[in-house]
Amino acid sequence: MQFRKTSAALAAVLTLSLAATACGNGGDKGANGDKITIGIKFDQPGMGLKTADGKYTGFDVDVATYIAKELGYKPDQIEWKQAPSAERENLIKNGDVKFVVATYTINDKRKAVVDFAGPYFLAHQDLLVRADDNSITKASDLNNKKLCSVTGSTSAQNVKEKLAPQADLQTFGGYSECLTGLENKAVDALTTDDSILAGYAAQKEHQGKFKLAGLKLSDEPYGVGLKKGDKELRDKINAALEKMKSDGSWDKFVKANLGPANYKNEPAPAITEK
Amino acid sequence: MFDFLDNPQYDLLGAFWVTVKLTLYSALGSLIWGTLLAGMRVSPVPLMRAFGTAYVNVVRNTPLTIVIVGCSLVLNQTLGFALGGENFEDIGFRMAVLGLVAYTSTFVAEALRSGINTVPVGQAEAARALGLTFSQVLRLIVLPQAFRSVIAPLANVLIALTKNTTVAAAIGVAEAASLMKTMIENEADALFAVFGVFALGFIVLTLPTGLILGWVAKRVAVKR
């Protein structure tokens, strides 16, 4: 029965590969931990970005590195894992990452699935416009404007439902696509959290072309996402965040990553998730 | 667990209706452009044959996401080409149909070409002996028989097209996949329920297509 042998072999291979992927790389291997896996964004300049030469830069990356240092991991023991918005909860729940630092706004629906430490940063929804454009001074100015955002994002929903229902909203898979339209005047503004916008405006190839409108359209407290019920880790991360603020590292990280865009950041927020 | 379905903010039927509209317009366009392409690939004019072959091989091997995002970013955002659409909702829909037609027609053309190969050479030779021109041979003798033998493969192309419409979410067309992204963003606690609802929606759309067209294919096939 050649056929049965083949199918049995196939089944074995399938089971093995499933088992191998299910193991994951939770990060706490060994007593002292050889590696720690942290989830960040790979595509947000200024916050979390994987550069062309394979380095990781951004405010979230600096914060995560600092927390890891406080937990006893050197920078070369950190394994970065991409955490796209839709997958953050599952990465945490399945133990694929120890924690997530990825412009992760704390809200109740998410708190039902994961725990947060922090917040470590307070962002606001804002607009990025061309540097010479002064026609948008308040949210309702958007009603006869062409606006761009990312499909499904909270910012896009916020505009459609509350801020400016008449705005002509184009959504793309990522923010980079919006910048093409903004530069070519196909759209008038790009909306998302100001921290992310500042990161784009500060990029070398965009410097001087765009500016932030500074409207503060919503509050987005960013937290560190971690497994539900892991109170010990949460306390440790909160302690690390406190230390980061008091020793001046927080200000240094903000200035280094978001400074070039003339971004007026909020002071470091008080920790509420305990 | 499924209480998000009662939230009036999510227009589930509306989103799937956009999916259906995208599918129907694109299917119609692909059938027309795909038939022309198949005609070109078997035509006696070398230039047309070369164009048909080049187009089919290039577009068929380009990822659909690149085709559709390219339509939107290059044609619309950079060159200002809008296909007569007024706002981004219209423009996005039309750009998505354009991209889907450009892509799917290559598969229609290849399916049809295989259908043309099932028609015995004698049929075309007899038609030519009667004095019919190439386009008459193709229109009156070969294509009617070819179509009848490729209903089932075309049904597969249609099903693939239905699923491919989800790529239009990348340029912001408000179809099912786009609503799913919105729901995943908001309903972090019911992730798998959201996935389940949309998977079921696509089964409801594609399964009957396959069953009905499979039945039609059996009915109309030319028995040789």
TrEMBL record, chain A:
<protein>
    <submittedName>
        <fullName>Glutamate ABC transporter substrate-binding protein</fullName>
    </submittedName>
</protein>
<dbReference type="Pfam" id="PF00497">
    <property type="entry name" value="SBP_bac_3"/>
</dbReference>
<dbReference type="InterPro" id="IPR018313">
    <property type="entry name" value="SBP_3_CS"/>
</dbReference>
<dbReference type="InterPro" id="IPR051455">
    <property type="entry name" value="Bact_solute-bind_prot3"/>
</dbReference>
<feature type="domain" description="Solute-binding protein family 3/N-terminal">
    <location>
        <begin position="35"/>
        <end position="261"/>
    </location>
</feature>
<keyword id="KW-0732">Signal</keyword>
<comment type="similarity">
    <text>Belongs to the bacterial solute-binding protein 3 family.</text>
</comment>
<keyword id="KW-0813">Transport</keyword>
<feature type="signal peptide">
    <location>
        <begin position="1"/>
        <end position="22"/>
    </location>
</feature>
<dbReference type="InterPro" id="IPR001638">
    <property type="entry name" value="Solute-binding_3/MltF_N"/>
</dbReference>
Automatic annotation (TrEMBL), chain B:
<feature type="transmembrane region" description="Helical">
    <location>
        <begin position="58"/>
        <end position="79"/>
    </location>
</feature>
<keyword id="KW-1133">Transmembrane helix</keyword>
<keyword id="KW-0029">Amino-acid transport</keyword>
<keyword id="KW-0812">Transmembrane</keyword>
<dbReference type="InterPro" id="IPR043429">
    <property type="entry name" value="ArtM/GltK/GlnP/TcyL/YhdX-like"/>
</dbReference>
<comment type="similarity">
    <text>Belongs to the binding-protein-dependent transport system permease family. HisMQ subfamily.</text>
</comment>
<keyword id="KW-0813">Transport</keyword>
<keyword id="KW-0472">Membrane</keyword>
<dbReference type="InterPro" id="IPR000515">
    <property type="entry name" value="MetI-like"/>
</dbReference>
<protein>
    <submittedName>
        <fullName>Amino acid ABC transporter permease</fullName>
    </submittedName>
</protein>
<dbReference type="Pfam" id="PF00528">
    <property type="entry name" value="BPD_transp_1"/>
</dbReference>
<dbReference type="InterPro" id="IPR010065">
    <property type="entry name" value="AA_ABC_transptr_permease_3TM"/>
</dbReference>
<feature type="transmembrane region" description="Helical">
    <location>
        <begin position="91"/>
        <end position="109"/>
    </location>
</feature>
<feature type="transmembrane region" description="Helical">
    <location>
        <begin position="190"/>
        <end position="217"/>
    </location>
</feature>
<dbReference type="InterPro" id="IPR035906">
    <property type="entry name" value="MetI-like_sf"/>
</dbReference>
<keyword id="KW-1003">Cell membrane</keyword>
<feature type="transmembrane region" description="Helical">
    <location>
        <begin position="12"/>
        <end position="37"/>
    </location>
</feature>
<feature type="domain" description="ABC transmembrane type-1">
    <location>
        <begin position="16"/>
        <end position="213"/>
    </location>
</feature>
